[in-house]
Amino acid sequence: MAQPIQIHSIHRGTHHGQDDYTVVASIGDVRVGHLDYSCYQGVPSIAFIEVSPDHRRRGIATALAQALQAAHPQQEIEFGMLTADGAAWRHSLPMVAIPDKVVAEANAELELARREREALLSKVKLGERANFDRINVLHDRIDEIEQEVFGKSAVKQLIAITNDESNMENKEAMTRGDMLQAAALQLEPLRAKLFTAHLDASFEQPGERVQLERHFNAEAGYSDDDVARIRSLKVGESWTCPDYGPSHTVTRLPDAEIPEDKSEYIRKYLWPITPGDAKEAQHVLDGFESRARVEAGIVRWLSNRQVPPQPVLDLWKFAGKPFEIERSAKARDTEISDFLAQYRAINAGRKPSQEQFSEMRSVFGQAAQPMNVVTGDQYDLEREQIVQRPRMKP
């Protein structure tokens, strides 16, 4: 039985009111395609779509487009500039036409307003008495509606979430959850196969590291037989490299459930957008053994004895590292509170230097009175004085 296509959406960032996303398609642990799109003022626009050569002609690009439509069930998708292949794919997508009630109602109001205005203007032409105030109101309203519906069609062309023609007429009433179910896209929950790879001191980078199925491939030096044997391992079973013997082994770990709210490093580890993402996430993951230590369940950096940030803890927890994430997070919050209290004790009521006042004026302006949000002190930049304000509680 063929494995289902799994779809995951990654929010890459926001700029100038626009949100950028990547929708990733996976089969098992193999990433087989992705779709980049942006969303501005609620309108999604596809920027790029790619499917790996070995998985083309299997409906993966269509599944990505359907998942995007499911996320915006009442909004037409913009496809932008298309290559010849892209245009052919666009025309191959199953589509459904749905009346746009908002545009249809606006067009109806526009038609009525135009008729009423024409009737009043006809009276003027005939020398009859007419309500010029009403004509002006109609003129303004017509202009507003024309701008509102400019470039819009009374019928929306949406990507069909199912190929069942008998269900097309009901698409407008379907919820997003219904549409995803109709598309047979397995979104959540998902689980990832994890392995621990052991390399002894004879290797350039010895140690143990947690890895995914996709890490075992020809580029990493594994033969097709090696990959097949590793992927067939059951939890607790180990594979010994035929070339290096016990110097290199791989053990299957319990599967990890992929959390619905995936933090930064979990996203980069599971679905790297660039090679740099994968390298960064692996570096963070390896840091548990090489740059951190666990004491009483709390993990801390060796360098400064502080608890790492939450995205780092999330990745380590996902990979099954032996520490207590709740206790560690609580310890980090305590560290931050203690630091802020110490900062307030040292800096509350302390007058900034002339150089600091000058820097603040260059940023905020001569007459500004910015506040130090940690101490609660407010500064008069023009007179270079502290404006006394109630202190914030530590």
Description:
The chain is an alpha+beta fold and 394 residues long. The chain has five domains: 5-96 and 159-182, Aminopeptidase; 101-149; 190-258, no CATH class; 264-344, no CATH class; 348-387, no CATH class. Helix content is 37%, strand content 24%. The chain has helices at residues 60-71, 84-92, 101-125, 132-149, 176-182, 224-231, 264-270, 275-291, 310-318, 325-347, 354-364, and strands at 5-15, 18-27, 30-40, 43-51, 95-99, 155-159, 190-192, 194-199, 207-212, 238-241, 245-252, 256-258, 292-295, 298-301, 378-380, 385-387. The strands form six sheets. It has a four-stranded antiparallel β-sheet with strand order 1-2-3-4, with helices on one face. It has a four-stranded antiparallel β-sheet with strand order 9-8-11-10. It has a two-stranded antiparallel ribbon with strand order 5-6. β3 (30-40) and β4 form a beta hairpin. The longest helix has 25 residues, at 101-125. It is flat. The two termini are 60 Å apart. Residues 163-189 have low confidence and may be disordered.
